[in-house]
Amino acid sequence: MTTRRSFLALSGGVLAAVAGCRGSKPAATPVPDVVLARGRDGVVRLTGAEARPLGAGSVLSRDGAIAYAGQLVRIDAATGAPLQEQSIGGGWVPRVVAESGDACVLARTRPADPPVGRTSSPLLVIGPDRHDELTLPGCVEPDAFTADGQGLFVLDWLPADNPDHYRVRLLSFTDGKMTPLFTRDKRPVPEDAEEQMRGRGRQAVYSRARQTLYTLYTHQPEHQHTRDLLKGTRSHVHAFVHVLHLSEQWAYCLDLPDPFGQGPAEGHALAVDGQRIAVLDTASGSIAYAGAESLAIEEVARIPAGKGVASLASGDGGRLFAADGATVHVLDGSRPAATWTLPTAARGLQLSPDKSRLYAGGDDEVVWLDTTSGSVRGRARAEGLVDVLSVK
């Protein structure tokens, strides 16, 4: 979606595989896995010698299993096979897929950051035995389903007619009302203590158990956390990770130390494994590690400072792949272990299911490296690639 996920805004062209060279690019290599990538008008499935769009305006669940497209088709993303079709009428745009894969919320508008001002926001929720159309007051954007699928976290943009900041709220499908979230200690947040998000979310990642959504924020002008508002204190951090628990419905901001957030937003990236949260800042050459349970910074590792766009992927055993443009730094735990070079600057990093291949989006291509040696094992043409989303 957009707003907190503006880094995922759709752009670029539709991917296309070609059999031979184009310009200075080498001949395409058959892709050994199923790579799901983002193009201008939705998700594209790339495997073997084929690159096939999953449908206009298609969106993918964050585990990469299910996509929704068109009017309205539910798709098995790994095989590309349609699972279910449902007539919903024209004008609806798929926006967010539930992690169960059996529900989707649609809006009348495409993602934009900030969205166009409006006084009401129609949403359509499609799921098992569900076809609910809601009209919410104000300028409201869908963000993520609750874990049980009975509600939706939304971004309530203010002022509605000329939005420049927002608050994260919970929409109940039962009564159609929007309410504030809870604090980390399960207390209701008073309406006058809700956080006002004025910056833009750089990246959002689910925990592996898909119970928690982590969103990286940088450059928050005059942002004050709920805990500061409740205590009457002030925060002066430049970057933090917004932690949203999808079943317990609480939110917490994990502050990142200086100099995180002072460099370019595109130089920051986020990755989460079962134990730790990792945040990369290429401008300072810093990688901050925090405990996924403690939500506290444990250590900061160092790599050479750079100027490239950041991408981050977390492997097994604490292994981390940190891209600074076309340079990939490999860390074992927090210890630098190797440095690899990509043909072009990375546009997203994803590991194959067996962790033997590291896929990187590139300049109109997808590249994959051997995760033992770092050598390039294949390149496939991918016109207008924006990001590599998932590998199956």
Q: How would you describe the overall organization of this protein?
A:
This protein has about 400 residues and is mainly β. The chain has one domain: Methylamine Dehydrogenase, Chain H. Strands 3-2-1-32 form a 4-stranded antiparallel β-sheet, with no helix packed on it. It has a 4-stranded antiparallel β-sheet with strand order 4-5-6-7, with no helix packed on it. The radius of gyration is 20 Å and the shape is globular.
CATH architecture: 7 Propeller
Structural class: mainly beta
How would you sum up the major sheet?
4 strands, antiparallel
Number of domains: 1
Give the N-to-C terminal Cα separation: 22 Å
Range of strand content: over 45%
Oligomer: single chain
Please give the count of helices.
Answer: 1
Spatial sequence of strands, sheet with the most strands: 3-2-1-32
Report a brief summary of the structure.
The protein has a single domain, classed as Methylamine Dehydrogenase, Chain H. It has one helix and 32 strands. The chain has one helix at residues 226-231, and strands spanning 31-39, 42-48, 50-53, 59-60, 66-69, 73-76, 82-85, 93-97, 104-107, 120-127, 130-137, 139-145, 151-158, 165-172, 178-179, 200-206, 212-218, 239-245, 251-255, 268-272, 276-281, 286-291, 297-302, 310-314, 319-324, 327-332, 335-341, 349-351, 357-361, 365-370, 376-381, 387-391.
